[in-house]
# Entry
Amino acid sequence: MKLKDLSVIVASWESRQWDAFIAEYLPAGVLTDAFWSGRPCPCPICGGKDRFTYTRNRKRGDWVCRKCNNGSPSGGDGLELVRRYTNMSYYELKCRLNGAAMPTPLQLPVRPASTRKPLDSAAKLRRIEQQWSAASCLSPGDHAMQYLAARVPGLRAPKPQSLRLAVQEYWHEKKLIGRYPTIVAQFTLPDGRMATVHRTSLDPRRPEKATVIDAEGEILPSKRNDVSALPPAGGAVRLMAPRNGELGIAEGLETAYAAYMQFGVPTWYCLNRVLLSQFVVPDGLGIQTVHIFADFDAVDEKTGKSPGVADALALQKRLRQAGYKVVLHRPKVRGTDFCDEWRTVYQLRQMSNQAVAA
# Structure
């Protein structure tokens, strides 16, 4: 049987038919009143809390996400939304819409149920040390460097000793989802011991985070901690050495590098805002000034505060009481972080340089 092209099938569809098509493939938890009314809502693809809008602009199931996966705006029609959410190819969609038999899906292996006791601290430490030792140092042009260059344009920074690259299996609920190039980050406590490793799964073909979807269509996080061999409070991923007694601290990897590019301050990152608020300056490194690069989150309705800024202020207060000079930075635009701001700054600098050259 000859399959009709997708463009032929959907050429006569009306908005309600696009709505029905999307409703067939996206779960009810995604298809909220906010989704159908075109209000900002969680993105089915990247998981952002309020950056997605179902616009219907061209009456083709149209949508837009303000910051999807690699940090840039993304959008498309209903076919693209379903394809990216389900991880189906266009060929698979064509088969479904033609009523043809689907190719047999790859049967992913299932881990047998484990009868072992929970890991103790020593076993957890061996596990994370094995992951760290199995990963390779970063090199120019590898998956990790391509991803970082895409997220932080113009990136020029010292080679990180705390980041490595590996190809790792992604397991979820005892099922293997796939294998992905993975940035492995060493999370270090103030006394120098490794507490855990943080992993960022990357798309095998494009310089962006992997879109990981299980068999039920759930979007899984591309960034995860492994087990913690030690309580992580106080620690950070040490991207670069402090300079002239100064150190910056941020929540995330990309934000830390963006802050370094914008302010020239060597910066570490703590994985999240809670661990940032608990950061402890290590002894013996000559650190006297700490720059805190806060995420300027939207205001939480329950607390009336920006969570990222509130935790940064808590860290600022504690470090000042400990005798450190503290400089708190936040982006100019609410709802952004320094990775967002650096992209704007970089683009403006490029435009300025081009104008001068002209």
Notes: The chain has two domains: 6-98, 121-357. Confidence is low (pLDDT under 50) at residues 102-111.
